[in-house]
Specification:
The protein is an alpha/beta fold. Helix 4 packs parallel to helix 5, helix 6 packs parallel to helix 8 and helix 8 packs across helix 10. The protein is globular. The termini are far apart. The structure holds NADP nicotinamide-adenine-dinucleotide phosphate (NAP) and guanosine-5'-diphosphate-alpha-D-mannose (GDD). The site of guanosine-5'-diphosphate-alpha-D-mannose has 23 residues, from helix 6.
Length: 333
């Protein structure tokens, strides 16, 4: 029997990679999209003849009930979220509506229609914030440092609670930062790869950044969506940290990206204090031993390969005739 999966957030970075993976596994994929006045399907354009898109919104409980009733999926991947940390200080209430109440709406909708549906919730290493332990594991206490982090802690624990209260197969993946050429332009890796490509091609002369001292455990998104799927194939629902176990600073990211195109980063990078955060997460590094042992999960792309992949993809995009339009759109964050 063909398995059916619903993905919220299919228009995002992870949704697009997960849709590819599930289609390759023979799944029927139904993607949840919210209405937008202009199309934002560029990440899944190549999949549009193979996925079904259905309108629903994490803010609208009945829209979730309706789609679950109509589709009757085997698996439900909740990837939709307000995912950009700085925006969560500008819109803390909306962030909570999406990332905390939205998860509860999703869980309630599934419980009401069919509590046997397997659920993946996109939790985040941002929950560790001011870290209580190095490296971070599934047992490390949380100390979030942003409204985003706080909202994700709620989403995490409500998922655990529905598993423990109702015996639902609900897994929470505590994923560390993962990137790709499909990453949004506002996140630091993509901002850097796009900026480096623009400077190399003469489309810009500098790149403004905030805190270069922050460290992150960066992996490749394609590897991380594989872990999401693996979690839902286990006998028991559980929570897993997914990380490479290696951390780098933003400064190292910048050095590597500029060096990849033979440029000296110090000639082009400017520090803009407006890009510093009200409260920073200084250093994240994950221990994915449990996922390695129980899921057989391993990352396949190194930090160096990831940076090269992203810079090369932006160079290619901005060099192509259709890239000219994109070249006029400067990242604003
Ligand atoms: P992303 O590229 O920002 O995608 C977010 C997706 O959520 C988009 O498809 C967006 O739709 C959708 N969305 C937002 N609000 C919605 C709502 N109210 N109703 C329905 N859909 C909504 O994020 P990502 O990097 O793929 O991350 C996927 C998930 O993993 C997120 O929950 C994120 O918080 C979490 N996470 C990400 C990372 C990472 O490093 N990437 C690490 C840990 C956890 P539109 O296209 O309409 O905006
Ligand atoms: N975005 C951005 N822009 N970040 C910058 C900049 C800049 O100009 N300059 C320095 N940084 C630093 C930030 O201060 C932060 O310490 C680090 O780069 C990473 O920032 P982001 O790429 O925006 O990611 P994030 O770590 O805040 O959040 C991402 O990872 C989380 C998992 O830990 C997002 O994908 C979240 O959705 C995800 O949960």
């Amino acid at each position: 029997m063909t398995k059916r999966a619903i993905i919220t957030g299919i228009t995002g970075q992870d949704g697009s990679y997960l849709a590819e993976l599930l289609l390759a596994q023979g799944y029927e994929v139904i993607g949840v999209v919210r209405r937008s006045s202009s199309p934002n399907l560029w990440r899944i354009e190549h999949l549009l003849d193979r996925v079904t898109l259905r309108p629903a919104d994490l803010l609208d409980q009945l829209s979730l009930v309706r789609i679950i009733q109509d589709v009757r999926p085997d698996e439900f991947y909740n990837l939709a979220a307000m995912s950009f940390v700085p925006a969560s200080w500008d819109q803390p209430l909306l962030t909570g509506e999406y990332n905390a109440m939205g998860v509860t709406r999703m869980l309630e909708a599934i419980r009401q229609v069919d509590p046997g549906i397997r659920i993946y919730q996109a939790s985040s290493s941002e929950m560790y914030g001011r870290v209580r332990e190095v490296p971070q594991t599934e047992l490390t206490p949380f100390y979030p440092r942003s409204p985003y982090g706080v909202s994700k802690v709620f989403g995490h624990y409500i998922t655990v609670n529905y598993r423990e209260s109702y015996g639902m197969f609900a897994c929470s993946g505590i994923l560390f930062n993962h990137e790709s050429p499909r990453r949004g332009l506002e996140f630091v890796t993509r901002k850097v790869s796009d900026g480096v490509a623009r400077i190399k091609l003469g489309l810009a002369d500098h790149l403004s950044l905030g805190n270069l001292d922050a460290h992150r455990d960066w992996g490749f998104a394609g590897d991380y969506v594989r872990a999401m799927w693996q979690m839902l194939q286990q006998e028991q629902a559980d929570d897993f940290v997914i990380a490479t176990g290696v951390a780098h600073s933003v400064r190292e990211l910048v050095e590597l990206a500029f060096a990849h195109v033979d440029l000296d980063w110090e000639e082009h990078v400017r520090i803009d204090p407006k890009l510093l955060r009200p409260a920073e997460v200084d250093h994240l590094i994950g221990d994915a031993a449990k996922a390695k042992q129980e899921l057989g999960w391993e990352p396949s792309v190194s930090f160096q390969q990831l940076v090269a992949m992203m810079v090369d993809a932006d160079l290619e995009r901005l060099s192509s005739p259709s890239g000219h339009r994109a070249a006029t759109l400067q990242p604003r964050f």
